[in-house]
Amino acid sequence: MTRYNSIRVFLSILLITDVYGQKEQMKVDSKIVQKTDLNYLLFLPESYNNDQETKWPLILFLHGIGERGNDLELLKIHGIPKIVEKEKKFPFIAISPQCPADYDWRDEAMQETVLDLLEKTLNNYRVDKDRVYITGLSMGGYGTWALATKRPDLFAAAVPICGGGEPSTASLMKDLPIWVFHGARDEVVLPEESEKMVRALQKVKGKVRYTLYPNAYHDSWTETYANQELYDWLLSNKRTDHKKF
Fold this sequence. Notes:
By secondary structure, this protein is α/β, with parallel strands linked by helices. The protein has one domain (40-241): Alpha/Beta hydrolase fold, catalytic domain (Rossmann fold). 26% of the residues lie in helices and 22% in strands. The protein is built from 6 helices and 8 strands. An 8-stranded mixed β-sheet has the order 1-2-4-3-5-6-7-8, sandwiched between helices. The longest helix is centred in the middle third of the chain and has 17 residues, at 108-124. The radius of gyration is 17 Å and the shape is globular. Residues 1-35 have low confidence and may be disordered. Keywords: Signal. One of its GO terms (molecular function) is hydrolase activity.
């Protein structure tokens, strides 16, 4: 059975209730004055209800620009939502918000909304708070860098794919394990966008590794998310393993 919840978030209203495996409305508070609607998909592992004591690692996934809007089915085209559609035993809780058409993950309003959403998920599901990971592709890769910069204390590791960030912020993330991916033939987001972040992190002795696919174009995410090594690496990192911020 698919363990998705389709949830709509409205700013400035308090959370009411949620029922496992059902479609509900979730409402969250935010400090933002501007109101922003946010849909998202929540995946719970097949065995989530088998043991009420087990706490699960969580992946926050940020999609690319082509999946913006209000159609949640678009999220299942790429990335983690595509994986969990087929892999019901995927050993993570996965939360995949959908950016509205007129926004970008780097917008302050969206960052705050996503962080509110993540906080509510951490408080309402059995999440191992020391194993919360963030990843995203293209626009979501940029968003991953932005949120890792904004709240490095929340995450155990980050995986930005074909994105980019601000090299001047590298010191804020130097203790956060980051695995960067890009396609060498990418003409949509040039590899230099990732590489300047990698160089900046290396300069401050950050915990960064970089995979450049020599024959990949913009889609460097399909191979990345299909690689079991990625998930093994994520699970090898805990928030308690790196310096407290």
